[in-house]
Amino acid sequence: MTKKYLDSNIFIYPILYEDETSENCKRILLDLLKGKFKGYTSILTWDEFVHTIKKHKGKEISISEGKKFLKFSNLTFIKTHLSTIYKAQKIFTENNVGPRDAIHAATALLNNIDEIITGDPDFDAVKEIKRISPENFK
After folding, report:
1. 34 neighbors 69 (Cβ within 8 angstroms)
2. What angle do CA 69, 5, 127 make, to 5 degrees?
3. In the β-sheet with 75-78, what is the strand arrangement from edge to edge?
4. 5 by DSSP, 3-state: which?
5. Which CATH number among 3.40.50.1010, 3.20.20.70, 3.40.718.10, 3.30.70.980 corresponds to the domain 3-136?
6. Which site among 57, 75, 105, 124 is 20 to 30 Å from 118 CA-CA?
7. d(CA 79, CA 27)
8. What phi and psi values does residue 29 have, to the nearest 5 degrees?
9. Helix-, strand-, coil-residue percentages of the chain, each rounded to 5
10. For 18-54, how does the pLDDT look when each residue is reduced to its tens digit (9 = 90+)?
């Protein structure tokens, strides 16, 4: 089964928006639930997810969605270790990405995952990992 890293925006879009990108994200998450691939993400994703939902929809909805998120089938949460941060520092230094994106890229790469599903084009700067946009996910 293929391993794919999922960025936080894949989980956020279906809750906040009703557009084509949101529909593509829903399709990706449905494929994950059906076990068409094995999904991985950093524990950092929970923070980004809950923070964003709280900011846009309020605390109660963020609590409810956060609980569902933590029980997502076929999704493995990867711990962040100091080695992850050292790798993130290197990615941050050498590429035009922010620190959180560097943590996501480092988490994927240190766990032998070379594809990230994200709508964030900043990941294109990290040549070690292939970005799959929601529109191009098959």
Report:
1. no
2. 150
3. 75-78, 38-42, 3-6, 115-117, 130-132
4. strand
5. 3.40.50.1010
6. 57
7. 26
8. -65, -35
9. 60, 15, 25
10. 999 999 999 999 999 999 999 999 999 999 999 999 9
